[in-house]
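Methods — Computational structure assignment.
A single polypeptide chain was analysed. Its primary sequence is given first, followed by the predicted tertiary structure written as structure tokens.
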Amino acid sequence: MKLWKGRFSKAATSSADEFNASIEFDQRLYKDDIKGSMAHAAMLGKQGIIPADEAELIRKTLKEIEADIEAGKVEFTIESEDIHMNIESVLTERIGDAGKRLHTARSRNDQVAVDIRLYLKDEIAAIDGLLRKLMDTLVELAEQHQDTVMPGYTHLQRAQPVTLAYHLLAYYQMFNRDKSRFTDCLERMDFLPLGSGALAGTTYDTDRDFLAQELGFKGVCPNAMDAVADRDFAVEFISCCSITMMHLSRFCEELIQWSSIEFSFVEIDDAYSTGSSIMPQKKNPDMAELIRGKTGRVYGDLMSLLTIIKGLPLAYNKDLQEDKLPVFDAGDTLKASVNIFTEMIATMKVNTQNMERAAKYGYMNATDAADYLVTKGLPFRDCHEIIGRIVLYCIGKGIAIDEMSIEEFKGFSDKFEEDIYEKIAIRSCIKAKKSKGSTSFESVKQQLADIKKEK
């Protein structure tokens, strides 16, 4: 039976019922819906809006319904449309008129608004925990590879030598900002919409501050219309998910490249790889590729919700029923991706010799060679041109810069001395970096120390 049937003289068709219902996907909000309803019942009883004994009966029965849902004893129906009306229908079946009093001083509009906020508060806590685990894993790997030399790239071309620890800590900082974005999102989300009614508040003497305290919100939404009409907090949540997925995708792209024969920098563990149905030799980095692919899916969730909201007049519109699918999908996808990514990098094998070999034969000490000439009194632009000609010469001969003889060096500039070899050794290039936040061994050690202080 429809809980709003009084106004209507004709029943909805079965196709309209099916099209209108959201219970298929919003049933996962049952815990949040029951939590909000229990707080609402307590408030109604405290304020004398309904009898205190009925308020307590409602709370007790809602707890029983929650247990029955988890035990698979409650069957949701399309006729009751959504999780809110399904639970209220079951409640009324069990305790009669007392159950009908629960919806006093509230609307489904503020009910769903509080449900989705409660749900997202838990989602953010779960994501925070997963990101912390990922960041801890990156720190552990960085500590193990402070001495592992590898090429640093720009334009996917070998640029300057760095350490693997330094490279990993770059991603640590990205994920650290991602984590803080979710914290910021929660800060703006953490206001109670319940008690707003359909859009204009209620004539009952409610206590919304009590509700906020009961449900763990830091405050109350100051405008009832805004509280039920907007989902910017959900857009922000999916935006945070999208940015985090983008960072995961970038890292996955590198791991996909690094695990190829052409790079051979890392080997993904067998447990996180797949084979080919036709080519026996293949070992594919499918987990990384799936994360890269799922990133586009989360972007789609963001565009979906932005598009749903963009043309809605105030206040609530049924379009907002569609907010849950992108929210659920973005959160689920991100959590699964962060979890599998953390496991994957924790178990991968790093081919340190291949990394260092690539660093040696990429002319990545060219900038340091130019800096060497600067210390000898030449303008940097002149030094840049000289070293550029040296690189061209070395390419032609198929040698590294540090494989040139001192006579060959002097053929390009009489400023070169025997100390050039020490200055352009790959590890010397790394060690020589002095600026804060650089790839030098000391700087990376300090970055790790600073990270540990922050925990």
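Note: The chain has a mean pLDDT of 95.
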